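Dear support,

I submitted the protein below through the web form. The confirmation email said the job was done, but the results page showed an empty box. After a refresh the structure appeared. I'm attaching both so you can tell me whether what I see now is the final result or a partial one.
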Amino acid sequence: MNFNQHINKETTTITNFFTNQSDITINKLLNEGFNCYDAVITSASTTSSHKLFGIVEAKTRDINHDTHQGGVLIQLDKLNSVKQALNEAKSLQKNLNKTLKSYYLVQYNDFTYLFDLECVDYGKLYSKLLPKHTAKDGSNEWIYKDIFLLQPEQAIITTKTI
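What the results page shows now:
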């Protein structure tokens, strides 16, 4: 799969998931490959006057959710990039009275999960041998990456992948 096909696949993941969530609106898709997150969303909360604004990192994985025994894989460098972008956004004057959050959307062949990155227990940090650049060039080069394995039951939304 080339890079553009990969980007289109993740854009489809984002669009399909949030289209089926009536209280969540996609404000902007940024899935070009050089952003540290892929979408900006708005979600209504329990009071109609209060909205949550979020940045979303998305992954589409062509495996079942239980392939990585122990949980849903998120790379430490991706997590750090999203959290840094969130902190920078929170520091802007225009966002002082907004509630900003970061999310991780991951679609597997069987389930799709949305995690609130501020509310999950990251547990233990692992170093796992993974493909270096699967999306960009299909390279078979493998390197060790630091990852967390999120527990599926900690997802704020879980759906069966269609």
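Response: this is the final, complete result; the empty box was a page-load delay. The CA atoms of residues 113 and 158 lie 5 Å apart.
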